[in-house]
Amino acid sequence: MKLSQRITQLTGGGSDGWEVFYRARRMIAEGHAITELTIGEHDVRTDPTILNAMEISARQGHTGYAMVPGTDLLRDTVAARIQARTGIPTSRNNVLITPGGQSALFAAHFAVCDAGDAGLFLDPYYATYPGTIRGAGATARSIQTTAEDAFQPRAEAIDAAAEGAVSLLINTPNNPTGVVYSRQTLDGIAEVCRKRDLWLISDEVYDTQVWDGEHISPRTLPGMADRTLVVGSMSKSHAMTGSRCGWVVGPEEVIAHLINLATHTTYGVPGFVQDAASFALNAGSELEQNIAAPFRRRRALAMRILETQNTVGLVPAQGAMYLMLDMRATGLSGEGFANALLDTHAIAVMPGESFGTAAAGHVRVAMTIDDDRFAAALRTICDFAAGLAERRAAE
Length: 395
Ligand code: PMP
Known about the structure:
Blueprint: H1 5-8, H2 19-29, E1 35-36, H3 48-59, H4 72-86, E2 95-98, H5 100-112, E3 118-123, H6 129-135, E4 139-144, H7 155-160, E5 165-171, H8 183-196, E6 199-203, E7 228-233, H9 234-237, E8 246-249, H10 252-264, H11 271-282, H12 285-307, E9 313-314, E10 322-326, H13 334-345, E11 347-348, E12 350-351, E13 362-366, H14 371-394
Parallel strand pairs: 1-11, 3-4, 3-5, 5-6, 6-7
Antiparallel strand pairs: 2-8, 7-8, 9-10, 10-13, 12-13
Helix pairs in contact: 3-11, 4-11, 5-6, 12-14
The structure holds 4'-deoxy-4'-aminopyridoxal-5'-phosphate.
The site of 4'-deoxy-4'-aminopyridoxal-5'-phosphate has 13 residues, from helix 5.
């Protein structure tokens, strides 16, 4: 039977640069002890106080259908949070609760892209981005950023790609690079969006994980609140990846249409999960700071280790739970280095090539194992790279 092009061409086909990841997973399944620095999942579980709120809600009977747009309590809580961060008036009518940030990314594109439109995104990118844009029926068009610009996008490059485009997807703090977009970068992006009449879809799921500089939501920039859809999530800020709870914040008209989409797709998010999220967001910033603390600590550890050598370069590690390491001095591609590292030292990292073409020659290291093992793994990576670079110089 024939299947739709939309589904068969969702992932674009061909090699996706994830072979090293799947090989590491196979080795683990076969019983090999692998140090896993691949995926962005916390090494702690959801806080017991949040689970308690979830249990109380469920036991009190919040296990039936919840309100499709989200509970009033969670929508109000998210609206207040976004308003406090941006200064832009925000009410529950600006908020749709979704099953995680991924669903919010899809909904946002579905709301603004028609078949044949181009949806812009920046390379390197979080793995699902092009498929999400294609899933909404649009053509996914990537724009390169460069290691030389510390992966801060250039407004001119976006402008040059904007013909026929209706949306631009950005992510700061960034996965995979760990870069936080500067005010100058965001001002440039906002200017292109206004000039080219683009929707800006702003993925801010790492907004509580900023180590250097400040997180600026583009929704705050002049003329942007009416054309920006903010994607947020409980996954990273509150270690609730499995609870699947996120949101889209945007103009009321867009949210009203997105409620129709939710009615015909997800039919909402479980009420007890939403109550747990409301509890977590109202629990004060200490809880989020505690969840971000291990990454802040490991990032500081990594800076100290990387300072002592000069083979491995570090892309400015300003936020999120990843480090992007420049391995080009070894002469290997990111994929070549990651494969050699897995075979020689049983350490699994993600090749930069898993995230497009712009981060070729780099590897992404997730800071998601305990400090001692993380520091040891990073030292091994540096020593291994130094050995490869020396051998290369001797050739
Ligand atoms: N955006 C980015 C940049 C991510 O890294 C992730 C998860 N790794 C998501 C969105 C989606 O997260 P979730 O669906 O768990 O909220």
